[in-house]
Amino acid sequence: MRKLFLFLIVCLKFFNTSFAQQRYVEDVAEVDKLNSLAYDSRLTDPDLTIDYGKRAFKLSAKINYKNGIGESFRVVGIGNYYLGRNDTALAKYLMSLTIFKETNNLRGQAKVYNNIGNLYREIDHDKGLQFFKESLNLASKLNIKDLIAGCHLNIGIIYFRKNQFKVALENFETSHELFERLQNPIGITQSLQNQGVIYYTLKQLNKAENLLIAANKKAKENDLNNTIASINLTLASVYIEQKEFQKAEQIRDEGLAYAKLVKDKKLEQDYIYTSYELESSKNNYRQALFYLREVYKADSMSFRDQVSAKIGLLQEQYNYREKERENQLIIERQRTSRILYWATTIVLLLSIVVIILLIMNVRKKNNTNKRLRELNDEITLQKENLDRINHNLEEIITERTKDLKIKNKKLSAYSSHLSHQIRSPIATMKGLMLLEQEHLIEDEEFVKEMAKCVNEIDDKILNINRTLHDPNDHAF
Q: Are the CB atoms for 96 and 79 separated by under 8 Å?
């Protein structure tokens, strides 16, 4: 009877263990599924990405699935990045990177480096390139093909921003070839788009048009609304260069609708400038002037946002380093406490060893204090740097405000000039036409006087154009 009872207990423990292991495996699979859904939603619904990521974090924390926690931080960071919350995104990426380093997950680290590079891609080219190359190095070692392709795409974008078009084009072509092999529609679309942008910049308009149309078609097939808006922006500029204004207007209106649909304020501002270019090319100066004013307003806001984003990233990095230092100090203190504990134990056995250990401990404390002083000096220096950056920001804002006042004054002068100066020759022409209708002027004299008025209007328009485009000319 007793043996039977023990046997039943053993069986019960075995089944409980098996059930717990099965449940853990199922939970891990659910976490991975949620993180995958979060990542797949990033381009179409960033809010859904964040929601999936938070659910994955909650479950992975419950079962202590470290890599699941790290990936959930990463996808939540991606969702915030696509919503324009760069400082929050960086905080999540850094938390993810810390966990992936703890678990020695090189694949996760490679992805996070790529994500951080995207944050710096537009505001600090060199720093962004540093992170992308770090990601590419790890991805190449691990043969992560989709990440290798993505890194080449991002590196190409940075070289394009640095006006190194040949290197940029080589990276875009490499990424396109890799994405084609992987049959990755999003990657294919983005690589085609970026090649089209480079050829537009190089004024090879036919190549640019073909690549952008192909990218637009691919984006529509996969419901990439944000990408469609971005592609149409460049395609509209291509049609403006080709003097195909009707096509440019159609593609601009379509792209602007997509930009509003995805609520991308930066793209909407870019479309204002494209509208200015279109109206200016059509010689519709009144409407072009309206768009030009909007461009100046948007440009000033965009500049402030960019500087603010850069400071936000610096602040977030500073906070992360502070936490890292705190953790390092805790580890060092714990290590010191352990040494003291063992030293106290050995004191009871060997007094000589105790003396030696105390001497070693004093030396270590000196080193620790020295390190603490160095860290404190570094923290003070970084705080001074942040204060200096804030001061510079105020000066920049003041300068931009002054610049806008000058431009507004110039536009006002242009309006006054337009209404007073150009109206005079037009009034003369109306008078000549009345004389002609009453047959009070000879045809030759009428043609001669009309030519003078036309030439006078032409001269005034040329003078207006020169004044508008000359930053050193502040008056008409």
A: no
